[in-house]
Amino acid sequence: MIEFRNVNFSYGDKQILKDVSFFVPDGESRVIMGHSGSGKSTILRLILGLIGPDSGDILIDDQNICRMKVKDLREIRKRIGMVFQDGALFDSLTVGENIGYYLLEYARFGLPEIERRVAEMLGFVGLDDEIMDHLPDELSGGMQRRVAIGRALISTDPKIMLYDEPTTGLDPSMTSNITSLINRLVEVKHVTSIVVTHQIADAFELANKFIVIDHGQLIFDGSIAQLRNCEDERVVDFLRPFRESVANVKKIDFI
Fold this sequence. Notes:
By secondary structure, this protein is α/β, with parallel strands linked by helices. It has a domain at about 85-155. The chain is built from ten helices and ten strands. The strands form two sheets. A six-stranded mixed beta sheet has the order 6-7-8-3-9-10, sandwiched between helices. The longest helix is centred in the last third of the chain and has 18 residues, at about 170-190. The protein is globular, with a radius of gyration of 19 Å. The protein starts with a strand and ends in a 6-residue tail after the last helix.
């Protein structure tokens, strides 16, 4: 479904990604972890085609998006949903208008049908349709993330979902709600999921395959068992704060 082959990317003289290669099969979840500034979010922007690599290849469904015409790249993007860290909702639009924006602009549905679909999507992401007329700033951070996920799903019925720090800044209850929703999309809709996060505990709730990026280099790509046994000092250093915290409470024994 998604493949990076020896991808390099720079901003000016600063190299952000260095010879990055990985493969994510159809319907699988993958979490990309690493310290802030390691290049994690750049990977999502490359998948979307918002930026192009300096060298290397990026394949979506065996199609190399690095060599695509703009109109063909637009078709690829229709299969991809993106949820940004802050939700990126339109502040001046209601919840219903945010979720139904794509349908209002591009679909040939009447208003009653759009309202029905928006209400159905609100239910799917675990929100009451009574909030349809609320503005985003009237919602909690977790509810805003759910609205953002609903907007992405209703717009293109994506086969791929990308999430940039979806649980950052949320309380434990909302974090659990968001991770459950992301997992439900994989299980029910068989959506391929890539989650970028530096929240290690949340990562283990979202996938059983992980990538770790350090200063633009891919230093780990494998299962949780392989991650547990990894002896690369950069991986060990990244996981150390988490291991020390869970050792104190003794409630997680797999890492």
